Amino acid sequence: LYYEVYMNDIYEQLGEIISIFAKGTVLAITVTALLGILVARTITKPLTEMKRQAQVMATGDFSQKVDVKGNDEIGQLGHTFNDLNDKLKLATATTEGERRKLSSVLSNMSDGVIATDRLGAITLMNAPASRLIGQTFEEVQGQSLVDVLDLNDQVENISEVEEAGSMIIDLSSEDNHLLLKANFSVVEDENHDMNGFITVISDVTEQQRVEKERREFVSNVSHELRTPLTTMRSYIEALNDGAWQDPDIAPRFLDVTQNETDRMIRLVNDLLQLTKMDHKETSLMKDRVEFVSFFDHVIDRFEMNKNEKVEFVRNLSNKNMYVWMDKDKITQVLDNIISNAIKYSPEGGSIRFSAHSTKKQLRVSITDEGIGMPPDTVDKIFDRFYRVDKSRAREMGGTGLGLAIAREMIEAHHGKIWAESREGKGTTVHFTLPLMSQKRRGQS
Question: Where does the signal sequence lie (predicted)?
């Protein structure tokens, strides 16, 4: 059998077959591409989300989390990423809390703290340190600690402060006396290599002043006791060697010994009184006192016993002034001041007494015409054992504590005491006491 087929029909059939294959191929590629895109997006979307979340975390925001779908490798990575977010959030919160605590501690410390790098450049300073050195952190940041604390005279470079451990720094100026104590410690890294320094500074001006006064006080007490004891020993040795048999010498030697003994007793009594006042062990027996008549009576007592070399001049108020005070303590104050005025008044001189009211206070002034004092010593006469002329004061039998006791007693009455003096022109001692109000006078 023979078939006759036209080639055109064959070509048409082949074309249809090729078209079917082509369409199938395109469809397969399209489906494959779509599936690839879907699969890629399934993988890349969580990764993109993690990247975005990482960028948010880098700003310090840990409130958001990655949306995890599934439990495949990508899902497990998402869970791990969220766990990391939680741990970083906790660690950051802990670190921030510790930072705030440290900042609060540094800000509220009474001592100053300065941190430096290993070369000594300042990297941190708290507010107390800024107040103590008189400079802000911005002014000293990056500067050398040695230069800022003026340590050049004590150390040559920053490494020497570790050996020093601590030192006293004098930052005094013309207007302000300031002594600082600096304690140095080294900051080490995990390998125990030096990473910087921490310096703690504190104001020890008052502490040093008190320590200096304590040393001077002990020295003065020792000297004041040694002087009469040495004198007594010399005279007693002379008496023991036979001077007691001399009727002319023995009484004089015994008289000197008795005077020196009395002087030591006065000194010890004054010291005991000051010690009690320092420890607030002295109670004031206050009562209502009309001061003008009280002051007049004290002056009368001295006037009856004084010699003729000085004249008393009174300038007292003619009105009654009432004060709530301890009569015995204020009597002792007046005794100390008037005794000094008599001691230092020249023959033929005068002592002037004044008592007047100023607003709500009583003001008392006692003026002599003695040798006076240099201006720079006036405020010191109320210090313990201070004497302008030590040799003359000892000749007159003073202990050097009378005006110190007077100041303590006046201040215990909420008053004020001070002096004015000109060399060669005399001295005036003033003190004030609060006046009683009319209402309080009526109640008392």
Answer: none
More confident residue, 53 or 6: 53
- Residue 333's nearest CA partner among 407, 282, 415, 280 is 407
Domain 110-203, CATH among 3.40.50.720, 3.30.70.1340, 3.90.190.10, 3.30.450.20: 3.30.450.20
| Residue 56, SS3 per DSSP | helix
| Range of lowest pLDDT (259-268, 335-344, 394-403) | 394-403
Cα dihedral sign, 339-340-344-349: negative
Six-digit token string for 364: 């008392």
Token pair in block for residue 125: 């300073």
**CATH number given to 208-278:** 1.10.287.130
How far, in Å, CA of 354 to CA of 363, rounded? 8
Strand partners, 243: none
CATH number listed for the domain at residues 287-443? 3.30.565.10
Comparing CA positions, the residue from 200, 196, 177 lying closest to residue 129 is: 200
Q: 248 is written with which tokens? A: 């002319």
Q: Dihedral through CA 134, CA 138, CA 142, CA 145, nearest 10? A: 10
For range 191-214, the mean pLDDT? 83
The three-point CA angle 381-386-390 to 5° equals 115
